[in-house]
Amino acid sequence: MNSVKKSGKLFLCAGTLALVFGGIGQTLAADKTLRVLGWNSGQPQVSQLEAPMWSNLAKKTNGSLAASFRALDELGLKGAEALRTLQSGAFDIVAIQVAFVSGDDPVFVGTDLPGTAYSLEDVEKINSSYRPVLDKHLEQAYDSKLLAMWSFPPQILYCRGDFFHGLADLKGKKVRSQSAAASAAVEALGGSVVSLSGPEVYQAMRQGVVDCAITGSQYAAANDWQDVANVVYPLPIGGNGVGVHIMRNASWKSLSPEQQSALTAEMTKLEGQLQEMAVSSNQEGLDCNTGKGACSIGKPGNMTEVAVSDDERALMKKVSREVIFPQWAESCNKVMENCARVWSDTVGKTIGVTLN
Question: Does one domain contain both 202 and 62?
Fold first, then answer.
């Protein structure tokens, strides 16, 4: 196997480490305290499900396990840096959205390539097929293990102005993308990619720096994109926001069998809850975007939801098979031996695609 590309930003700065370890003393006394890095705190998945689970871990395990939990944005970190924190050893458990780390390691996003799934039911099937592949890769490349695999709402398209009626209208437009695979889709459709973090999109769209941006309906609603975007297009051009929780093997092996069993049970429960929220929050996000239904995520908007036609799905399928999948396979084969073949035997078999 070829080694995974290393980054010069592998280790956290001293100030960040102080914040990480400074939070440990605030947890309840327990036999073992786990250092946990979650995803961004502004997501309901984190605030409503993940953070409470870790906060209550000592109580649920009768003092056997506790957790010192911090969210990615609380430490001033970006999505692409989540994988590097795992490598640095600063945390025992790290939550990662796979699209954001695809630049460092494309193996992760094999379960979330744009054009593989058009429903959250399909996402679960694909995740199930790819789970053993990612778990094995984590073992070999990172000395870590996969604890949970789930998804955010689909990563769909938001545009300002009234020009957008379908994918062909991206030609010549500036589009914020969150992954290499999504960028390949945008470029194949004639758009130009702009790299921005989620919090930067609002001002960029307001000022015309970008014409469109890719994110989930829930995130758009919670961050007031209804003020700057006119159109929402619910085709997952950016994939389906698959997330994972990963634990370092050294941390896992430091637990007793009873502690391992208790942690596994809690992570299995959390995985199910996160996947259920993806379904409910996606629809509520769209209702918020358009102002056509209940909206507890943010203030109701007045966006136009452009319907996705069969022709548009066919175009996305063509782009994924001719551009996205081959480009990804080429990069993945450099990181994991026979990556394309392994993908074809798992995800590919699920969706009826074979990569050379």
Answer: no
pLDDT one-digit tens code per residue, 285-321: 999 999 998 898 889 999 999 999 999 999 999 999 9
Residues of the domain holding 164: 155-238+285-324
Overall pTM surpassing 0.85 (yes/no): yes
- One-letter-per-residue 3-state SS of the chain: CCCCCCCCCCCCCHHHHHHHHHCHHHCCCCCEEEEEEECCCCCHHHHHHHHHHHHCHHHHCCCCEEEEEEECHHHCCCHHHHHHHHHHCCCCEEEEEHHHHCCCCCCHHHHCCCCCCCCHHHHHHHHHHHHHHHHHHHHHHHCEEEEEEEECCCEEEEECCCCCCCHHHHCCCEEEECCHHHHHHHHHCCCEEEECCHHHHHHHHHCCCCCEEEEEHHHHHHCCHHHCCCEEECCCCCCCCEEEEEEEHHHHHCCCHHHHHHHHHHHHHHHHHHHHHHHHHHHHHHHHHHCCCCCCCCCCCCCEECCCCHHHHHHHHHHHHHHHHHHHHHHHHCCCCCHHHHHHHHHHHHHCCCCC
pLDDT digits 0-9 by tens, 155-207: 999 999 999 999 999 999 999 998 888 999 999 999 999 988 888 999 999 99
Are residues 171 and 92 part of one domain? no
